[in-house]
Amino acid sequence: MTEKILRQKKQEQTPQARSRNFEEVSLGYAPERARLEAGRCLQCKNPLCVSGCPVNVKIPQFIRKIKEGDFCGAYAVIREDNYLPAVCGRVCPQETQCEGRCILGRKNEPVAVGDLERFAADWAAANAAAGKRQLASQRAARAQPAAKIAVVGSGPSGLTCAAELNTAGFDVTVFEALHEPGGVLVYGIPEFRLPKNIVRREIDALAAAGVKFELNAVIGKLFTVDELLSGKGFAALYIASGAGFPLFMDIPGEDLNGVYSANEYLTRINLMKACADADTPVLRGRRAAVVGGGNVALDAARSALRLGAEKVYLLYRRSRAEMPARCEEARHAEEEGVEFLFLHNPVKYLGDARGFVQKALVQKMELGAPDTSGRRRPLPVAGSEYELAVDAVIVAVGTQANPLIKDSAPDLETGRSGYIIIDENGKTSKNRVYAGGDITSGAATVILAMGAGKKAARAIGGIL
Amino acid sequence: MALIKFIQQLSPAVYRLTVAAPEIARKHRPGQFIMLRIDGNGERIPLTVADKNPEAGAIDLIVQTVGKTTYQLCRLKAGDNIKDIAGPLGRPTAIEKLGAVAVIGGGIGIAPLYPIAVGFQKAGNDVISILGARGRDLLILTEKFAAFSSELILTTDDGSAGAQGFVTNALQKLLDAGRDIKKVIAIGPLIMMKAVAELTRPRGIPTVVSLNSLMIDGTGMCGCCRTTIGGRVQFACVHGPEFDGHLVDFDALLRRANTYKDIEQKRLAKYLG
Ligand SMILES: Cc1cc2nc3c(=O)[nH]c(=O)nc-3n(C[C@H](O)[C@H](O)[C@H](O)COP(=O)(O)OP(=O)(O)OC[C@H]3O[C@@H](n4cnc5c(N)ncnc54)[C@H](O)[C@@H]3O)c2cc1C
Ligand code: SF4
Ligand code: FES
Predict the structure, then answer these.
(1) Shared domain check, A342 and A301
(2) B88 at the A interface (CB within 8 A)?
(3) Which domain, by its residues, includes B32?
(4) How many CA atoms lie within 13 Å of A13's alpha carbon, on the beta-carbon side?
(5) pTM of the model
(6) N or C: which end of chain B has fewer CB within 10 A?
(7) Which of A295, A402, A412 to mutate to test ligand 1, by most ligand atoms within 8 A of the CB atom?
(8) pLDDT (0 to 100) of residue B12
(9) How large is the ipTM?
(10) Is A61 helix (H, G, I), strand (E, B) or coil?
(11) Ligand 2 pocket, A53 CB below 6 A?
């Protein structure tokens, strides 16, 4: 009977309205809708959704609580396994994780696990300040003095590790290079997809629970890893410095004015608030080309629209099927008017006399045999080049490991492209030094970074 | 937050700020810079550390008023706070004993040159200092350089102090006189550094320049400071700020430096009212 209820749509701003503002696109469920959607869940004995979740959130249990109207209880269930539900509900690639495995998805649409997760988290934050604060990692009573632990980087991985260790009774300090904690959640993912007050709320709760934050502290420069371990007296270190070192394509014209890395473009807009006319400038292109096919590329493309571009092209060298972005974001971007040019790759940028980008020379591609990633390799189509008039280009073709920490700790083993090598517990080649998240895996996802933080926290707790 | 302990006007457009930053003062090496943000609405700007006093836990920044942020900074008073300051960033200068080293500073570039020049002198080099500016008002730190330089040459474009002409005229004279200069370190406007590099290139004298690129984070995250060095993309904040002057594409940097010129001029006009 329950199957007859269709997957509940959450409210969204209309494409016309939202493509010109930075407010959140999705408005989420109202309580009645959430309960209807929760009612669709079959409460499977062997829930496939859980096996698809990298941190194995007890999905049917929390959904049942929503169905019963115990929203705070639902939140508490999620929090047992996931430290940042309000974030994950918004940014996880549910279609390849929980929802991708949901049994209902075989014949109908899967349960909207992500939207329900988001609902529970938002409801708890808005309506149960007391209940939520109770959950905010209270430090366990511990024999004094508690061992000091340093976490390097305040992205989702560092925050999760800090929360776990704080709850376990350790004295945790998070060192963050930037002036604002949150990592990609604050400098990369735009407001319209993840409002910054949500990240702020979680960080405030963590600080209130006793975690110390040292901002503007670039580890490797201000203090080396060894200085933290010896002079500064930290018993262990968790490095979660992310993969934020942008790659370029090494094609002519990439140094023209108006050509940005996605990190630069998004940082100007988000962290430095160029979207709100703060002092940091950004060129407001009228015709922007974004290169790439992931979440980062879509965030950049949609930001360009919101800054007033009349035309935004997304140049992706493979086809739609290979796009690594979240489905929902691709749909949103298309609805908003981003023009997807699949099987297209820039080969050169041309500028005007003052050095501002004016045109992109693009080449068409076709798909050949599968490459090492299992995806079909894009191959250039000879003679297919043509010029596209653009006045802003945003390159979102990936990132690599930042060398700052490694340069100051030569005995920290790194592998391919500089990523830190860890064992199954997150331990590096250096004693008492752990690492996780994008700095070990390469650019991945929020939930995997969080999972790594949790695992390392347990391992660190185990050795101390 | 970093407290401004002292602020002094050195010339009509140049100020020295002494800022409390104990850890940075302890860690800083010649050639490194910091990033600062005045307030929550501000931009992050790179500034090279001109001097430091680890005992007092302070660093000196020398700032020329050019845009809104630098005007705002120079209008602060002792006792005010700067919201964010991060560093020391970038790779320190490679200081070694070579013999005679020429250090060349142009305008505000004289400030970051100072700790580097002192470093070379302490390492046992003969330091020939060539300092130049548009006019005498902008010629800063000359007494400090006089104290350790084996030779100090001053130039101004308008002849109001030292010899009339450019720093490159002075360097040319030294080279023509057959002086055995092992290394040149040049910090100043891009045009000046380019001219110095062109002068030393045919003679094969190793020449180091320090790039004052546009930056946002200063940690390698954004790529705003990228520049092509000998055909490879390098980030000034991580791989620099010092590079081999003979490999730098100055023309590309000159173009890039103008990216936000229009926006910045408008913003400054609005700020100054
Ligand atoms: C634009 C964009 C959109 C994305 N969208 C999604 C999405 O929709 N869904 C999803 O699951 N994932 C998404 N991702 C990926 C996801 O954000 C990352 O996988 C995740 O944030 C990695 O977490 P982390 O904690 O390892 O590192 P980060 O979030 O990168 O945080 C690292 C932190 O460490 C700091 N740091 C670096 N070096 C130092 C140092 N030397 N000293 C001190 N601090 C340092 C950095 O400043 C940063 O704050 C997106 C990424 C980007 C850039
Ligand atoms: S697989 Fe789908 S129906 Fe089954 S428990 Fe999970 S969410 Fe509910
Ligand atoms: S300033 Fe961002 S990478 Fe150098």
Answers:
(1) yes
(2) yes
(3) 2-89
(4) 17
(5) 0.94
(6) C
(7) A295
(8) 87
(9) 0.93
(10) helix
(11) no
